[in-house]
Design goal:
The complex is a heterodimer of chains A (about 725) and B (about 170). Chain A is α+β, with helices and mostly antiparallel strands and about 725 residues long. Helix content of chain A is about 45%, strand content about 20%. Chain A is elongated, with a radius of gyration of 35 Å. Chain B is an alpha+beta fold. Chain B has a single domain, classed as CheA-289, Domain 4 (OB fold (Dihydrolipoamide Acetyltransferase, E2P), Beta Barrel). Chain B is globular and about 45 Å long. The chains are: A alpha+beta (about 725), B alpha+beta (about 170).
């Protein structure tokens, strides 16, 4: 191929890798279906279709090994007896894994992984379906042998475009010839003198009978000369050379297989639509799917996520621009209250705001993908893990149409994997145990997703043994994370939080699948990064539900702006449960915490700024933001509220200013930078700083180090 | 060969420092700065530089001045370091100096021993001595310093120590 096609080739391969992942996914799905309903003809047909598409695509990208393996598999699947074979599902799983390994090897340009296990299974399948095979063999000895791969067809098209003739040569090796391998080489040598050999069947590596060789030759020489070349005494007993037609046809993939002419004894199968109908349904199915997928591909655009992010960034800048305009307009209105132009400005602003809103929503929608993309990988995983643990688990999936931001979806893949693995290996009991408890032997695992307000909820629930809060407490005491007194006071919900601690595990033994301790820590940290939350709902003996609460998007949040020490901060509005006003004199001190009583509930408080000195009036009004974090509530004392605004989040990833207290920054309409606080970190910090001496309270969280040391005496004395 | 080195001179306290003009992104007036909690004392905060959020170090505090009074002539030198913009607040930045390469001396070894390895040399310009700085090292040094400070144990000995402990724990 010409050097200019290199770039296109790379692009093609990239597309292939992506589509191949989807193909493998559906291969897994069909295999699961087949495992459930052995002998499901539809599933077998689908598997065959997938393998066929994979074969064709791989060949088009020049991945010969993959294409050939898929070809072998496809052939084996085409046998009628195969569809009822019990090991077929297993083979499909192995095939999916093998193909996956090969793909990643291609992608990383590494050496190919071993494929023996799949080949062996294919052979077994072909062998056990022996009778059917023989029947087909009788119908045409070399039917299966002379199918040229798409790769070779491409070469044929190239040869045509170079103005060469292409011959299909069928050579019978003299039965007296002792070394068929040498015969093959001799023939190849002879032919290389007159032209270029494009393809040979059977392959050098294959152990198939070597009585017969089929070749594709591109050459300028006439038929007679080629035939003469092939006549090698005592080696080749019989030669048939036929020119392949099709030079005039456009080089379309899978469109023109070399058409066999007169003397060829075994007809080459045609994949071309409208060509001679062939007994093989696999080929027809294949071309139909190819057409169907081509039709779908017309309406679907594969776009680099980065480009969409770029657009989203620009939309973000526009939103900042909008609030700049709005502020300028407000200023204008203030200065010229009688100006008639104001109305027109306001109209234009309102129009712009509306369009901008739509624009933002449309761009966000581009980034939204159904959660199914993530869920579909779990059936296979649940099956494998359940098998490893010797359990029976049924996976129920619902809400897979729920849309979720792509980056969030990618981020929760890992935590969800841990949760599912945990549920299967720890949550669900083995069949014996379940029967003893009067449950169905088969455990059930439910994956669900739905929208709730401004959030997306993803649930993993099992009907297993549940998490024993007492056991968690005991472990926590054992590991020194908790004192006995604290444990007694601690609610079950709070106790369950311990399972998210790194290194914490209630499992008595660590298994290959999950040692716990790490997995849940990942769940927690990912959810924190996403500004989401994880909730546990567990009932002893009846099962556990993990509820991941995720924001719809990461890029824009509704935020509440407030001031602390004359500085502006923002906090995500959906963590704010309510805003309370209080007087300094309403605050009480319990256990060195400042608390506020709201509707008979005691709310622990954190001062974000300095604690007022003794001279501050005790009657001073304060605002308390009540934050809800699952069961826990925490009040933040702030100096003043500023308002509510949509903020476009910019990462504050500069190492020198990075702090866990701040989850990001945003630029306001007037150009000021506002920091977005991370409520989880504040909560943690609050938990860590436990002043134990009377009179001291947690405060000054938002000050820089320098300011803290120069703080008034009262609040600096945070003792041991 | 008598090549001139183009240096942007700026004042911090009474001294004149210089950085190569090529290492500067731009010089801006000091806008409103948003303070960042937990930050080191010389870390002034972040500013909005035409839609980008840029962290700002106060070089005067960085160089150990106790009292810093904001003035009209104060400027922020915006430098690029490892693909990221950072700002350095200086008392004033006014002149571009052309110093012949021959008039630049290597920095005294005592500087490096004292941990002042961000000084690359001393330039002589019209009888004045100009301390030449390497902005990259200056910024790295600042980051390192902060890490050292925050690296110590997670004690609860006071608000500052508490802050350190928490940020070391992340």
């Amino acid at each position: 191929m010409s050097p200019s096609s290199d770039e296109r080739g790379a692009e093609l391969r990239q597309i292939f890798f992506e589509s191949a992942q989807e193909l493998l996914q559906s291969l897994n799905e069909e295999a699961l279906k087949l495992e459930k309903h052995p002998g499901d003809g539809e599933a077998v047909r689908n598997i065959r279709r997938v393998v066929h598409t994979l074969k064709g695509d791989a060949a088009a990208c020049g991945f010969r090994e993959l294409s050939e393996l898929a070809h072998e598999l496809e052939d084996a699947l085409a046998l009628e007896a195969a569809s009822s074979h019990s090991a077929l599902a297993e083979m499909a799983f192995v095939a999916a894994d093998t193909f996956g390994n090969m793909l990643s090897a291609y992608r990383n340009k590494k050496s190919l992984p071993p494929t023996e296990s799949l080949r062996r299974m294919v052979k077994e399948l072909a062998g056990s379906a022996g009778s059917g095979k023989r029947r087909r063999k009788a119908s045409g000895e070399a039917t299966a042998a002379v199918v040229w791969t798409e790769y070779e067809q491409l070469a044929v098209q190239n040869a045509f475009s170079q103005g060469k003739q292409v011959y299909q040569i069928g050579a019978r090796i003299d039965p007296q010839c002792l070394m068929p391998i040498a015969a093959r080489q001799l023939l190849l040598n002879a032919l290389s003198g007159v032209g270029e050999v494009l393809g040979v069947r059977p392959d050098a590596a294959s152990r198939a009978e070597r009585k017969r060789l089929d070749l594709l030759l591109a050459s300028d020489a006439p038929v007679e000369q080629v035939t003469a070349r092939c006549r090698i005494p005592t080696v080749i007993s019989q030669v048939k050379v036929a020119p392949v037609k099709g030079g005039a046809k456009p080089a379309k993939k899978a469109a023109s297989r070399p058409e066999p002419r007169k003397e060829i004894e075994a007809p080459v199968r045609l994949a071309e639509k409208g060509a001679v109908p062939t007994p093989s349904t696999a080929e027809n199915d294949g071309s139909e799917t190819a057409q169907a997928s081509a039709a779908v591909a017309d309406n679907i655009l594969r776009v680099d996520a980065e480009r969409i992010d770029n657009v989203l960034n620009l939309v973000g800048e526009l939103i900042i621009g909008k609030s700049m305009l709005q502020q300028a307009l407000n200023e204008f209105a203030r200065r010229h209250p009688k100006e008639a132009l104001r109305g027109r400005f306001t109209d234009a602003m309102a129009f712009q705001a509306r369009v901008l809103n739509d624009l933002q929503r449309s761009v966000m929608k581009i980034r939204m993908v159904p959660v199914e993309q993530l869920f579909r990988r779990f059936p296979r995983m649940v099956r494998d893990v359940a098998r490893q643990c010797g359990k029976e688990v049924e996976l129920v999936i619902s809400g897979q149409d729920t849309d979720l931001d792509k980056s969030i979806l990618d981020a929760i893949a890992e935590p969800l994997t841990h949760l599912v693995r945990n549920a299967v290996s720890h949550g669900i009991e083995d069949a014996y145990e379940r029967k003893r408890q009067g449950k169905a032997a088969r455990g059930s695992l439910h994956l669900n997703a739905y929208h709730q307000g401004n959030q997306v909820i993803v649930e993993v629930s099992d009907d297993g043994r549940g998490i024993d809060a007492q056991k968690v407490k005991a472990k926590a005491i054992e590991q020194g994370l908790l004192t006995r007194e604290e444990a007694v006071r601690m609610s079950e919900t709070e106790a369950l939080e311990f399972i998210f601690r790194p290194g914490f595990s209630t499992a008595d033994e660590i298994t290959e699948i999950s040692g716990r301790g790490v997995g849940m820590d990942i769940v927690q940290s990912v959810l924190q990064r996403l500004k989401g939350r994880v909730e546990i709902d567990t009932h002893s003996g009846r099962g556990t539900t993990f509820r991941l609460k995720l924001p719809l998007t990461l890029a824009i949040i509704k935020a509440l702006l407030f001031r602390v020490e004359h500085r502006l901060y923002a906090i995500s509005l959906n963590t704010v449960a309510e805003i309370a006003r209080a007087k300094e004199s309403d605050l009480h001190q319990v256990d060195n915490y400042e608390v506020l009583q709201i509707r008979n509930q005691v709310l622990p408080l954190v001062r974000l700024g300095r604690a007022p000195g003794a001279e501050a009036p005790a009657a001073g009004k304060i605002f308390v933001l009540v934050m809800a974090m699952g069961e826990r509530r925490l009040g933040l004392i702030v100096d003043a509220l500023v308002g509510e605004e949509e903020l476009v989040i910019k990462a504050l990833d500069d190492q020198s200013v990075a702090t866990d207290l701040v989850s990001g920054a945003s630029i306001l309409g007037d150009g000021r930078v506002v920091l977005i606080l991370n409520i989880t970190a504040i909560n943690e910090r609050y938990g860590k700083s436990r002043p134990s001496e009377a009179g001291s309270v947690a405060s000054g969280l938002l000050l820089s180090q320098g300011e803290r040391t120069s703080m008034p005496q009262r609040s600096t004395e945070v003792p041991q | 060969m008598n090549r001139d080195v183009h240096i942007v001179g700026f004042q911090v306290g009474r001294e004149t420092y210089g950085v190569p003009i090529t290492s500067l992104h731009e010089i801006v007036r000091v806008p409103e700065i948003t303070a960042v909690p937990d930050a080191a004392e010389y870390m002034e905060g972040v500013i909005n530089l035409r839609g980008k959020i840029v962290s700002v170090i106060d070089l005067r505090k960085r160089f150990g001045e106790k009292k810093v009074t904001p003035g009209k002539r104060n400027r922020i030198l915006v430098v690029e370091h490892k693909g990221r913009l950072s700002g350095l607040i200086v008392d004033s930045a006014t002149e571009v100096l052309k110093i012949p390469a021959a008039d630049i001396e290597a920095s005294p070894t005592a500087f490096a021993e004292g941990g002042l390895n961000c000084v690359t040399g001393l330039g002589k310009y019209k009888g004045r001595l100009i301390v030449l700085l390497d902005t990259a090292r200056l910024l790295e040094f600042s980051g390192l310093k902060r890490k050292e400070e925050t690296g110590e144990g997670a004690g609860q000995r006071g608000p500052a120590a508490e802050a350190r402990g928490a940020s070391a724990g992340k």
